[in-house]
Design goal:
The chain is mainly alpha-helical and 119 residues long. It is built from 4 helices and 2 strands. It has one domain. The chain has a two-stranded antiparallel sheet. Helix 1 packs antiparallel against helix 4. The longest helix is centred in the N-terminal third of the chain and has 27 residues. The chain is elongated. The mean pLDDT is 83.
């Protein structure tokens, strides 16, 4: 009869399982972000709000709004103060729509990723 008790834990297998779940978890967190950003996107024609795209490459999730118009609208607070370009004409949405949402929703996004990876 053996004395004691032994348990073997394959941490490499655990690490592989966790790593395999991370890209999908990042995608889910980034999709959540898109859902929170879209109502804040300035609307003039609606094209910008409908153009957001999500990609995940490795461990990087990206939310992208194409074209110079997206930057113009995002930074719109400066344009409204007459420092650059013409005044913006939208009545719906807000400047810094992406940055502000990332800051406000970061804990929720981290929670989504954590839940997807660790259950």
């Amino acid at each position: 009869m053996a004395d004691g008790w032994t348990i073997n834990i394959d941490f490499a297998a655990i690490g592989d399982e966790v790593r395999s779940k991370v890209p999908a978890a990042i995608a889910k967190g980034t999709e959540y972000l898109r859902g929170q950003v879209t109502p804040r996107v300035p609307v003039e024609t609606g094209a910008l709000a409908g153009s957001g795209g999500v990609t995940v490459v490795g461990l990087v999730g990206s939310l992208y709004y194409p074209g110079p118009y997206a930057l113009y609208q995002h930074e719109g607070v400066y344009y409204r103060h007459g420092r650059f370009g013409a005044p913006l004409t939208h009545n719906t949405g807000e400047s810094f729509f992406l940055e502000r949402t990332v800051v406000e929703e970061a804990p929720t996004i981290i929670g989504i990723i954590e839940h997807e990876v660790f259950g």
